[in-house]
Specification:
The protein has 272 residues and is α/β, with parallel strands linked by helices. It has 2 domains: 215 residues, NAD(P)-binding Rossmann-like Domain (Rossmann fold, 3-Layer(aba) Sandwich), CATH 3.40.50.720; 31 residues, no CATH class. Helix content is 41%, strand content 14%. Helix 4 links the parallel strand 4 and strand 5. Helix 3 packs parallel to helix 4.
Length: 272
């Protein structure tokens, strides 16, 4: 196998949760272009179908299915439809205003149920439950497989305001490391578990925090982000494609238990 071929995933079956969003769609495209049969899943069936339809229109092997990552029965039904997968990308996740501090909601007033919901979405649905359902089928394969979680910059450098999200993503990073060891020692050393930690990407979820609605000028928070990003720009969704292929392919066959920042240097800059 050539070095370039090691990055290809021809003949592999890849399933992505939360793939109806901007970043999930990038993961799906990267794997489909590298030769995988891609299952695009999302709680929103229409969003999943839109992503899969775009890929199929380009001649890529893509399929869509509605899946609730917080419902084990829904995950098991999806596994029955797809069969054992070679690659699982856990892209489901998100934040809630209720788990965030603001002038109107100080830390002391954050409701516990809001933090619990954010933790459930990002850790339980965003990593643990899919790993249980699809990972169990994966460990029985002689060639093993890959689980790729999505952590966050807030797990590495806790960010102001987003208390619940930072807690949840820190848990995802820790779980990634734990699961990597557990899978290798207890089940199959060829099952690898890693995560990526995106830095600041302009998406529908955070655009309002980083840019002004009128004119697109940077907010004070957006300017602070760029001031602490040595590469002096926000991430583009396609910046995640290369690291996704690396971690999901044989090019990283001896890599497990790591969390890779994709952040333009934000996590290593001290500010001076």
């Amino acid at each position: 196998m050539s070095n370039l071929d090691a990055f290809r995933v021809r003949g592999k079956i890849a399933l992505l949760t939360g793939a109806g969003g901007v970043l999930g769609a990038v993961f799906a495209r990267a794997l489909a272009e590298a030769g995988a049969r891609v299952w695009v899943t999302d709680l929103r069936e229409e969003a999943a179908r839109n992503v899969a339809d775009r890929l199929r229109n380009e001649g890529l092997d893509a399929h869509a299915r509605a899946t609730d990552v917080l419902d084990r029965t829904s995950l098991e039904a999806t596994l029955a439809a797809t069969g054992p997968v070679d690659i699982l990308v856990n892209a489901a996740g998100g934040n809630l205003p209720g788990a965030t501090t603001s002038p109107e909601q100080p830390f002391f007033d954050i409701p516990l149920d809001a933090v619990q919901k954010v933790l459930a979405l990002n850790l339980f649905g965003g990593a643990l439950l899919p790993a249980q359902v699809f990972g169990q089928a994966m460990v029985g394969k002689a060639e093993g497989g890959v689980i790729l979680n999505v952590s966050s910059m807030s797990a590495i450098r806790p960010l102001t305001r987003i208390a619940g999200y930072s807690i949840a993503k820190a848990a995802v990073s820790n779980f990634t490391q734990w699961l990597a060891v557990h899978m290798a020692q207890e089940y199959n050393p060829r099952v690898r578990v890693n995560a990526i930690a995106p830095g600041f990407f302009l998406t529908d979820q955070n655009r309002y925090l980083l840019t002004e609605a009128e004119g697109g000028a940077l907010t004070p928070r957006g300017q602070a982000v760029l001031d602490h990003t040595p590469m002096r720009r926000f991430g583009r969704p396609e910046d995640l494609a290369g690291v996704t292929l690396w971690l999901c392919s044989d090019a990283s066959s001896f890599v497990t238990g790591i969390v890779v920042p994709v952040d333009g240097g934000f996590s290593v800059f001290s500010g001076v």
